[in-house]
Every structure is written in structure tokens, then in C-alpha cells.
Design a protein that fits this description.
heterodimer, A: 81 residues, Eukaryotic RPB6 RNA polymerase subunit, four-stranded mixed β-sheet, 31% strand, B: 886 residues, alpha+beta, Barwin-like endoglucanases, six-stranded mixed β-sheet, four-stranded antiparallel β-sheet, 37% helix, binds magnesium ion, binds zinc ion
């Protein structure tokens, strides 16, 4: 996480771009294929604010605050459009 | 139509049909506007030509040879004398005309840009996966870009703008373009430019948007009906097609005879009108086509569109068998999961029962009962039909019932009338949440109404001012099991929305329980036994709380109520009657704190905070810890106990419950006079310009806020004064404070003063010039002139007060009307978006494409119904239990 002003907003959750090698390790235990993930647009401000450059078909891990569980992790597949 | 479909559909392409295809599809050309000859036989090449299907028994279709009802019919076609714009596409036509160059037909984009868009669309067409971007979206971007160019990049000529006069007239610099011209322009567009415009040149062409051939729908789609008088009446579509054919014929004749241009153009426009209204009779900008009687014709779009259209009425909304509808009335002696069904309805509704060795003799008995009833007064379900193992339905009649009675054996299915204990679905519209449709057990009753327990009124939002409800008899074994497990009323006591009870004691049940258990209320042995007998109490009587009372031992109401409590229940909480403005000690003194130790109520009254939905602590505890059936029993028994208690004590309210002593009224008047004076003082200061605005507000706003504050306080004060004199010996007060019905505000408005009326959250200000009513001076900002009502409902309102009160009341009515329609549509959109999401066994929430919507249901995989107000674990409760309460 860098010091982009975007991350200062408390409603913007933490985004982590996963390395290609990490992805299977995260998704396989959940029994979810990459095609079944919800999508995130490549032009999403959160992706632009990352240090790394995201590209089509990458996977980001989103760490959200959860009203019910305290914290929650979601995964999203990067799509161009 | 019991034929097999010979081919499997792998893919559907939607595209415009061209004249060639329309002709290929056509079973016959239609040339004459006549329908039937004098013998009532369809005229060949008329609108009812037998090639297009048959609607009369005995005749056979000339295309497929099938009989009526077996033949869906076949399309025909009309050759139009002159081309006509398809009104549904006129906007697209305009866009394309503006994006292309008339002389060459080229799209006004450089080849580079054309290739760019082509590539995008081609990629989309090649990919099988669904996506949020559509070909149409890309095409409309290309069109927009082309429209912006000032001149044609291919030949450099400047472009001329084409405008559209709705619905179908095109103009270029004021000059009308005939459909013929439009068509020839569209024809010029080269195939290579079409992809960009959103047309797949292999399938379709833009000039198909200008019609030269009109497809005629099959006869079974527009059947004529024979009236009682023997006169034939044609379908609206047929009427419209007759118009088209007539004008088409005249146009052709005139054109061929070389009639003046003006006449031909008039007829051409008339043909355009008829074809436009044939598609959509509500096209903006042209008059609706009407029947001779003045009724607007229902043409193609009208058949499909809107609530009564094919989609919403026939495809989404289905009518069902095995259902009944009648008025509802209350019955407190029914369980909440029962429904009283009138015998009349029960004899019409049936359940299919498969015969086995266990129910054979019972079903035989029922068949016999149906034809030779042993007791005509008593309801015994009968059987009208049986289905033999070979699938044949046999109606039981006076003649054959004995024979069929004897041959009944396992493997048969009989259709039995409804009887006690059957499971049915019960529903009241609008069905806004899942509790609007719940499964009930049937109780057959005399009378003609459905009977329900009053505690299920809130989830259905039902009352008994004439409400009707629907009942559905579940037919298959699986469905019955599912209804029993998932849909019964007790399974819905706890809400998935917030994790508390939504079904609980209401109104009189709460008053009754309060009267039974409050203070030192006690009952002699007769009363105690009478009340307890209502809940089928079978155990020993508890030790009387007042054994030495005059006239024999007496039991407290709390002891009687404790019979319903589980033995391990320990609770302590404030009752609904608790005075929030007094100390806990004072409240304890007044018996406003409830305490339950080991299932015995030791102090406090049972009221809304104990047994009502949402707030009732005891109900909450039982429904969460003891399960649905225990909660159902508890609610049922509370209902009966409350009715029993009310029979012993009685409860009534009337106008005298709003009586307050004269000096209390004087006090209220004094307070009001003082407040009005204070308002005048504020107004004076404002008029003199001495008024200081608060930060962020204008002077006027500050004045309003201050005045509202003063008048609000005096309303509270008069409520307090009135309330002080309305004690717990007053049934209206008991109802309000125990949470049964009404509030102390309602009471103080009846007894004391109604207070400030508001429209849009402000004092009333609209009306005449600078004043609300002509009874006041212009510019009067005082209390009375702006909607302050000093009177009470009991004393009655002055004319001006009454007027202001009606203004406030009107706003409330309008608000509810607006809110319901708006929230209804909001809900519809929400439901359509969420309806097929599902929690899978791995706790992920997924849609039908199996993509994940939420990685863990609710992010904590907690079923909120089983939670305590959303929390999975009741920490306070557990500590209490382990640490032993104290
Ligand atoms: Mg009603
Ligand atoms: Zn046919």
C-alpha cells in the first residue's frame, strides 16, 4: 500500500495485486476457478493507485471491513471492459 | 400438437428479416381485403386464407394439412405498392442516414476508424462468453463518431443533416425524403461498412428497415369470433390488415393509372399511417386508430406491452388450479399455524393421494361417505375422481361408485377433498416478503370465510375490514414435505432480516396479559382453574401466593402465567410500562421491572416487552432457544390465556378515558397562553430587526426554529399535565403504556392539546398572499396564524385549526400513496436482480452462471434467523447463565 490519497478514504478497502504464483494457492482451497470470480475493471481507480501495474486476467485480493465478521477477504479478476 | 421437435436449437440470431425471407416464409400472398365469402368460407388469397391456418373445426390447413387446434398456423405476406418506413426503426434509420454519405453510401469515418470498430465487434462476435458490452453499444459509438464529422472522409463532400419528424417523416434541409429515397440511400451502404453500424451483412441489411413486403400473422394468432347473433367479429389485427390492404390496393391503382402526384402521396402517407398503427397504436405524434365504436384498436405492441401484455400477464403471471380466495375473519382459538377453511371451499379443493395398504380402507370409507353420508351434518372429505394405474381418470358417479370402491387397490390415486391437518399455502397480496406466503394446517369450519389467528396478521399485513386472502393446495409429496419443513408459520416467527421475532402477541393479547399479571392482581380457585383450563394445563396447581386471603386461597396472575415458561428461564428486564423518567428504585417500587427465576415470574407485569413481536424478551428467548414449535405453542397459549384473563377482568375504553380535571385543563391553557406570548415576543423582536440569527441559518430560519421549539415544548408540557392525570386505572393508558395499541401522545392529543401542524416539516405557510387564511393579518407570524392547534380532539377544533389539521393530514395521505408506489418499483428491481442468487453448500453466494457474488454468505456465514439480533452468540446471556444471574 502506498501513500496515494485514495487509500486515505476509509470507505476504500485495501487492494493487493496477487502474484501469478500465489493465485492458485488462494483459489484452490476455496474451490473457485478464476473465471468464477467477480470482476474489477482495469480502469478502476483502486487498481491505478497500486504500485504494481495490473493487467487483464490478474487477480486482486480485497480486504474489507465487515459489519458482521470484522474483516473479510474477497478476490476479483481484472478485466479490460 | 403432440409432435416432437425434430431439431435441437444451438443458437439464436436476432436480426431484421428482409423481403426475400418474408416471402420465403409466407404460405400465401394476400391480395384481397375480403375475409369470408357468403357461405362463410375463407376467400383464397384473403386475410383468412386456409394456407395461413384454420380456426374452424372440420377444415384442414392447406399448408400443413393439420386440423384446428393442432396447427399453429403459417405466415402470409402483402406486397406493398410503395415502400413504407418501419416506425420502430425510424430513429435507427435517422442515425444511419446521418452517419453515412448519401451519394456513395460510405460510413463517414476514415478506414482506420472503421477497421478499429470492426475489430472490436468481430472479437465480441467470436467470443462465446456473455459480457456487459454489447455489439449495439460499440456500433452506437461508431455512429456517434461518424455523425460528428463535418464532411465525408472518402470523397470530401460536406454532409447534410437529416432530421426526423416523429414518427416516420424524414427531412433534408426542409425537403421531405420519401421512403423510397430513404430505402435507396440505405441500399447504397456497402457491406464492408455494415459491421460498424451494427448489422451483420451476412444476415441482414439496413434497407430492411424500410418495408416493401409486410408479413401477415397466421390466422390462429388473430382468430375471428362468432357473436351470439351469428355475426362474425374480426380481431383488431385483422381489421388493421384490412385497412392496409385497401389503401395498398388504391395506391397501386392510382399509381398505375398515372394519378396526380398529390393523390398518390396522400395515399402513400395513409398507407404509412396504417402500417405504423398496425405495429404500435400508441405511437407518439399520430392519432390512434379506433374501432367504429370509438375503442382504440389493440395492435401488436399493445398485445405485448405493459401489465396486461403478453409478457407480464401471460408469461410471468400464471393462474393456477387448486386455489381458493375469500374474505378473512379472526379466530383466537386457532393455532397460528392453522387456517380455517370453509366446507364449501374444502369440497372443491383436492389432494391427490396414492393408495397403499395403509390408507386403502380409509379411502374406501371416504368414497362410500361421498355417496351415502352417515351424518350429513358432519364434514367428511369425499372423493370425486380416481386415477387408475394406467393413467385414466375416472369420475365417481352414483352409478359406478360401488364398482370403483371395490376395485380400488394400491397403485391407484384418488383426489381427496381437503381435511383437517392438510398443509396449504396461504397468501395475502401484496406479497412483499417471504412471510406473505406461509404454510398453514387446514381446519375445516362452518361459514364462508377463511379464519386465522390474530398473531399472523402483522406478517401478512392483514386486517378484517374486508381483506381477502388466497389459499393454494400443495399437490405433490415433495412439495408438501417442503412446505411443512420450510414454510410453516412457526418457521417464520424469527425474521431473517434482523434476528428477532416478527410474529408475537398483539393488541388485546398484550392488554389481557397485563391485566392478568400486573401488580397484586390475584384470582380465586374458580378463576384460576378457569383461566388455566384455556391452555389445557394438566399439572398440579401451584402453591397459592395468597393462601390466607379472605374467601379462600388466591393465586397471582404471575403464577398462572409462569405455567407457560420453561423451567430453566432466568430473565430480568424493564417492562414496557417502565417510567423512563424515574429512577430504577422508583420503578421497582411500582412493579415495573420483570424478573423471572427458574421459570417462575417473581415480579413485574407481562406486557409488550415480554410477549410482543420485535420487543418481547420472553418470546425472543423461547423462539431462539427452544425452537419454532415451542414458540408457536407459547404464542398460541398466550393468546388463549389473554382471552381468558380478559373474560375475568374485562377491558373497555371510551371518551371518558380522555377526561382530565378542570384545573388540569386550566393549567394547559395557561401554559399555551404563556407559550403563545413567548412566540409573539420572538416575532416582535424579529419585526424590529433585533433578532440574531444562529450560525449557518438565516434570520427567518432561526425564528422558525425557535418558535417550533417553544410550541413543541408546550405540546410536551400539556401532554405531561394531561398524562399526570391519566393513571394506570385508565384502560386507554394501560393499552398505550403496555404497548398494546396507541401511544401516550395519542392520548394527550385527545385529552390535552393537538399541537403544531406541519407541512413539509415546517409550520403551515402556504395559502393566500402573505397569510395562510383570510382570518389572519398579512404577515402574521404568530402561533395561531401558522397552524398551532390549541384544542384537543375531545374538545373539538376551531374552524381555522380544523383547516390546518386537514392540511397536515392530507400530506400524510399523499406521502403514503407516493411511498408505496415508489418502494414497490424499487423492490421489483431489487428482486429481479437478486432472485436467483443462492447460498451454496460451501457457503459462497453464487448466481446461475456459478460465479461468486459473495465469498462467504453474510461474510460470517451466520443464518440471521438463528442469531440474536444479528449476533451469532448472545454473550450477555451466556455470562448470565454461567455466572448464575446475580
Ligand atoms: Mg384491510
Ligand atoms: Zn398449417
Amino acid at each position: 500500500m502506498n501513500d496515494n490519497i485514495l487509500w486515505l478514504n476509509k470507505l476504500v478497502p485495501k487492494h493487493v495485486l496477487l502474484k501469478e504464483s500465489e493465485i492458485d494457492g488462494k483459489l484452490t482451497p476455496l474451490n473457485i476457478t478464476r473465471e468464477q470470480l467477480p470482476k474489477i475493471l482495469l480502469k478502476d481507480p483502486a487498481l491505478k493507485a497500486l504500485d504494481e501495474e495490473a493487467k487483464q486476467n490478474d487477480v486482486v485480493e480485497v480486504h474489507r471491513f465487515s459489519e458482521s465478521a470484522g474483516s473479510n477477504i474477497a478476490y476479483r479478476r481484472v478485466v479490460e471492459e | 400438437m403432440r409432435e416432437m421437435i425434430p431439431k435441437k436449437i444451438s443458437k439464436i440470431d436476432f436480426a431484421l428479416m428482409g423481403p426475400k425471407e418474408v416471402r420465403k416464409l409466407s404460405a400465401t400472398k394476400v391480395i384481397t381485403a375480403d375475409t369470408y365469402d357468403d357461405d362463410g368460407f375463407p376467400i383464397p388469397m384473403g386475410l383468412m386464407d386456409l394456407h395461413m391456418g384454420v380456426i374452424e373445426p372440420g377444415l384442414r390447413c392447406k399448408t400443413s394439412g393439420r386440423k384446428m387446434d393442432e396447427d399453429p398456423g403459417h405466415f402470409g405476406h402483402i406486397d406493398l405498392a410503395m415502400p413504407v418506413i418501419h416506425s420502430g426503426y425510424s430513429k435507427t434509420v435517422k442515425d444511419i442516414l446521418n452517419a453515412t454519405h448519401p451519394a456513395s453510401g460510405r460510413l463517414m469515418l476514415t478506414q482506420d476508424r472503421i477497421d478499429h470498430y470492426d475489430k472490436q465487434i468481430q472479437a465480441l462476435m467470436d467470443s462465446d462468453a456473455g459480457t456487459t458490452v454489447s455489439i449495439g453499444g460499440i456500433a452506437s459509438r461508431a455512429i456517434r463518431e461518424a455523425t460528428k464529422s463535418k464532411s465525408c472522409p472518402h470523397c470530401g463532400e460536406p454532409k447534410i443533416k437529416v432530421t426526423l419528424d416523429k414518427p416516420t417523416t424524414f427531412r433534408e434541409e426542409g425537403r421531405k425524403l420519401t421512403p423510397k429515397e430513404v430505402r435507396s440511400r440505405l441500399e447504397k451502404i456497402p457491406n464492408s461498412d455494415l459491421l460498424c453500424l451494427g448489422f451483420n451483412p451476412k444476415i441482414t441489411r439496413p434497407e430492411y428497415m424500410v418495408l416493401t413486403v409486410l408479413s401477415v400473422p397466421p390466422v390462429p394468432m388473430r382468430p375471428s369470433i362468432t357473436l351470439e347473433s351469428g355475426e362474425r367479429s374480426e380481431d383488431d389485427l385483422t381489421h388493421k390488415l384490412v385497412d392496409v390492404l385497401r389503401i395498398n390496393q388504391r395506391l397501386r391503382e392510382n399509381r398505375d393509372a398515372g394519378a396526380p402526384q398529390l393523390i398518390v402521396e396522400d395515399l402513400w402517407e395513409l398507407l404509412q399511417y396504417h402500417i405504423t398503427t398496425y405495429f404500435d397504436n400508441q405511437t407518439a405524434g399520430i392519432p390512434t386508430a379506433r374501432h367504429r365504436s370509438g375503442r382504440p384498436l389493440k395492435t401488436i405492441v399493445q398485445r405485448l406491452k405493459g401489465k396486461e401484455g403478453r409478457f407480464r400477464s401471460n408469461l410471468s403471471g400464471k393462474r393456477v388450479n387448486f386455489s381458493a380466495r375469500t374474505v378473512i375473519t379472526p379466530d383466537p382459538y386457532l393455532s397460528i399455524n392453522q387456517v380455517g377453511v370453509p366446507e364449501l371451499a374444502a369440497r372443491e379443493l383436492t389432494v391427490p393421494v396414492r393408495i397403499n395398504i395403509h390408507n386403502l380402507s380409509f379411502m374406501r370409507q371416504l368414497i362410500k361417505e361421498n355417496f351415502v353420508p352417515t351424518d350429513p351434518e358432519k364434514y367428511i372429505p369425499g372423493i370425486n375422481y380416481m386415477i387408475r394405474p394406467d393413467g385414466r381418470r375416472v369420475k365417481l358417479t352414483d352409478e359406478n361408485w360401488e364398482f370403483n370402491h371395490d376395485r380400488l387397490e394400491p397403485g391407484f390415486i384418488v383426489e381427496r377433498h381437503l381435511m383437517d391437518g392438510d398443509i396449504v399455502l396461504f397468501n395475502r397480496q401484496p406479497s412483499l416478503h417471504r412471510m406473505s406466503m406461509m404454510a398453514h394446517e387446514v381446519r375445516i369450519m362452518k361459514g364462508k370465510t377463511f379464519r386465522i389467528n390474530l398473531c399472523v396478521c402483522p406478517p401478512y399485513n392483514a386486517d378484517f375490514d374486508g381483506d381477502e386472502m388466497n389459499l393454494h393446495v400443495v399437490q405433490s409429496e415433495e412439495a408438501r414435505a417442503e412446505a411443512r419443513i420450510l414454510m410453516r408459520v412457526q418457521e417464520h416467527i424469527r425474521s431473517p432480516r434482523f434476528g428477532g421475532a416478527v410474529i408475537g402477541a398483539i393488541h388485546d393479547h398484550i392488554t389481557g396479559m397485563f391485566l392478568l399479571t400486573h401488580g397484586t392482581a390475584s384470582y380465586d380457585i374458580d378463576q384460576t382453574v378457569r383461566v388455566l383450563s384455556r391452555v389445557d394445563y394438566k399439572g398440579e396447581l401451584p402453591k397459592p401466593e395468597y393462601p390466607k386471603a379472605e374467601g379462600g386461597p388466591r393465586w397471582s396472575g404471575r403464577q398462572i402465567f409462569s405455567v407457560l415458561l420453561p423451567n430453566d428461564m432466568n430473565l430480568k428486564y424493564n417492562a414496557s410500562v417502565y417510567f423512563a423518567d424515574r429512577t430504577p428504585e422508583e420503578n421497582a417500587e411500582l412493579d415495573m421491572i420483570v424478573e423471572i427465576v427458574n421459570g417462575n415470574m417473581i415480579r413485574g407485569p407481562v406486557d409488550g416487552n415480554s410477549i410482543s413481536a420485535f420487543k418481547g424478551r420472553i418470546l425472543e428467548e423461547i423462539s431462539r432457544l427452544q425452537g419454532a414449535n415451542a414458540a408457536k405453542d407459547f404464542i398460541d397459549k398466550v393468546t388463549r390465556l389473554a382471552v381468558g384473563a380478559l373474560m375475568e377482568t374485562g377491558c373497555t375504553t371510551g371518551i371518558d378515558d380522555a377526561d382530565v380535571p378542570q384545573d388540569a385543563l386550566n393549567q394547559i391553557t395557561e401554559a399555551q397562553i404563556a407559550a403563545v406570548k413567548e412566540v409573539d415576543k420572538l416575532v416582535n423582536a424579529y419585526n424590529k430587526g433585533k433578532f440574531k440569527p444562529r450560525p449557518g441559518r438565516s434570520v427567518e430560519e432561526t425564528l422558525e426554529v425557535e418558535i417550533m421549539g417553544v410550541l413543541g415544548r408546550v405540546r410536551d408540557k400539556s401532554g405531561e399535565i394531561a398524562g399526570w392525570h391519566l393513571g394506570m386505572d385508565n384502560f386507554a393508558v394501560i393499552m398505550a403504556r403496555s404497548g398494546a395499541r396507541g401511544s401516550m401522545l395519542n392520548l394527550s392529543q385527545m385529552a390535552g392539546s393537538i399541537g403544531q401542524q406541519a407541512v413539509r416539516g415546517e409550520r403551515i405557510s402556504r395559502g393566500y398572499e402573505r397569510r395562510t387564511l383570510s382570518h389572519f393579518n398579512k404577515g402574521d407570524l404568530g402561533a395561531d396564524a401558522k397552524g398551532f392547534v390549541r384544542s384537543s380532539y375531545k374538545s373539538g377544533l376551531s374552524p381555522t385549526e380544523y383547516f390546518f389539521h386537514s392540511m397536515g393530514g392530507r400530506e400524510g395521505l399523499v406521502d403514503t400513496a407516493v411511498r408505496t408506489s415508489r418502494s414497490g418499483y424499487m423492490q421489483r428491481r431489487l428482486v429481479n436482480a437478486l432472485e436467483d442468487l443462492r447460498v451454496k453448500y460451501d457457503y459462497t453466494v453464487r448466481n446461475t452462471a456459478n460465479t461468486v457474488v459473495q465469498f462467504q454468505y453474510g461474510e460470517d456465514s451466520i443464518d440471521p434467523t438463528k442469531s440474536k439480533f444479528g449476533k451469532a452468540i448472545d454473550v450477555d446471556g451466556l455470562i448470565e447463565e454461567v455466572a448464575g444471574g446475580k
